[in-house]
Amino acid sequence: MRVAITRGVSPAIGACELTLLEREAIDIDNARAQHSLYEGILEELGCRVEHLDEEPGFPDSVFVEDIAVVLDEIAVITRPGALSRRGERASIERALVPHRPLKHIQAPGILDGGDVMVVAKSIYVGLSTRSNAEAARQLGGLVASHGYRVMKVGFSGCLHLKSAVTAVSDDTLLINPEWVDASAFPEHSCIHVDPAEPRAANVVRIGNAVLFAAEFPQTGERLSALGYDARPVEASELAKAEGALTCCSLIFEVP
Ligand code: CIR
């Protein structure tokens, strides 16, 4: 079965980190309502949702994806690139201990889970303001004995690699070619987002279903036309905090 670790929206979300977006007021009630719908969809798709308590001291703590990389064999606790986010690790470690042996990225490595795309045994690490080559090197060392290969990827135009590209299957990626070059992924075929929807590349794959942000219907239609079970999810409020769909969960298999 699958577990999805999530966390309630912090009452301090208005003080979130922002890198590329201008600050806009976040309606916390709407953010919480959309987040609950997201959790409901994960449950409908068979995930057991382990919902962690809100963290009033950590504005960005709803974005649990950035704090760990969970593989079948181990979980790697990251060292987030933003200082304000490092304290989010303690509770994520506690949540993961029952499920996986834990490993850690150490200084001077910095890594946000949003920069780590795992596709079967290939792990792509986006080099960004939040993730560096040293962390990619450490990650490579931690996972090599489990048969994974870590590759570094450059990108621009967005905060994290997975805003530019995510996997819709083990063979195929959904990509915004303006932000990341498809030649970085020679083993995969690529579907392009609709050019009018540059932020649409971040989708959550659960079994055969692909969750896409409801704001990007044209990309959703592209996926449906190609035979994917594409399902819209409202995520506009947390998008103002530079969060996308994958950021709000850590999804993995358990016996
Ligand atoms: C941050 O800047 O860390 C948060 N405001 C947004 C994090 C989004 N996470 C992700 O894309 N994986």
Describe the model.
The protein is of the alpha/beta class and about 260 residues long. The protein has a single domain (about 1-255), classed as L-arginine/glycine Amidinotransferase, Chain A. Helices cover about 20% and strands about 25% of the residues. It has helices at about 30-45, 90-95, 135-145, 160-165, 215-225, 235-240, and strands spanning about 1-5, 45-50, 70, 75, 100-105, 115-120, 120-125, 150-155, 165, 170-175, 190, 205, 210-215, 230-235, 250-255. A three-stranded mixed beta sheet has the order 2-1-15, covered by helices on one side. Strands 3-4-5 form a three-stranded mixed beta sheet, covered by helices on one side. β3 and β4 form a beta hairpin. The protein is globular, with a radius of gyration of 17 Å.
